[in-house]
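Support reply, case 0932

Customer input (verbatim):
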Amino acid sequence: MKTYARTYWFTWAFLVVAAALTGVASMKDAFFGGLFAALLSALLTKAYERGGPRYAPLFGAAAGTLWVVAMLYRVRWFGAPEDFEIARWTLGTDISVHAAGFAGAALMTALLARHDFPKALGGGLLLAAAMTVVPYGVIGWIDHRVAGPVELVLMVSADVPADEGPVRRPGALRAELTAAEIAFLKERMLVVEGPGGHEAVDEQGRRYWPLWRRKLIYPGNPGGPVRTLLVVLPPGLNAAQTWNVPVHQDPQGLAMVTLGAQKGVRFSGGQTSQSVRLEVTLTVKAKETEVAYQNLQAEVFRASPVGDLYADIRTQGLPAAFPTSLTDPKKPAKADDKAKPRRPSFSDAPAAK
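Our regenerated output:
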């Protein structure tokens, strides 16, 4: 009975500590989840003893892995969708922690038949710690290089007089350029301080302002290094289309991409990543002879060096900080206005007639 109890408490304590240190679960989830996992480990005590120090750790690691997979399907079938997504994102670390805990308990149980308790406990702790640190270090390195947040800054040209800036919508969150972004833009465009804040001017004299800023975060690594991408959307794009946009290879890199017609992309900023890419989709709404721009959707795709382990992260609506057209949608436009090209409008209001 003592051997069963030692196996149980060793497994439970290790799972709680490892889960807390690796961040795969809250303390509450680690506490109660470890209780049931440790119960399974204790039920395998006889199998650990028969396997001996050579085979018991392998049997325990396999049992811990199967336990995590079973819990993943339990959440999938009976849990909330967001809980299942979190379980998918932390699957690798969950398996590492549980396989280590079960293997350490198995080795400790097998050594108890040949050595005293302190030696058996030391062997179990050493094995479990090594099995946790090494895989988690590899996972942490992959997440650092691949799964950090991607921050998008959309630059658009607004139809405003030369001595004015765009009028911000009431209550809209103002998108501002950082000092590093301004310095980066100055190497590629003319950047001046205008009535609407910092504005970038291209070679054709078109003025651009940041319409919105959005950070797409992989929940398994919310505090990781941030890739920043300045997306320039020129006026005159009059059809819905999708662009495959590269991002910087450096997890903390800063780059600029200019979108063009027929899926054209001009990237500037250094080497691109082979593991992270961005898909940008422009949706439009045609009405009579006009085309009204509705919104821009962005989705991040990630592939780790050992396979596709990550769910895709997409935007859920991108509110514009200011209108990009002077036309009042409540007033009818003049007949000759229909022939004029319109600036992109990210407003949900219907297009002018």
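We compared this against your earlier run and they match. Two observations from our side: The first helix runs from residue 2 to 22. Confidence is low (pLDDT under 50) at residues 288-292, 325-353. Please reopen the case if you see a mismatch on your end.
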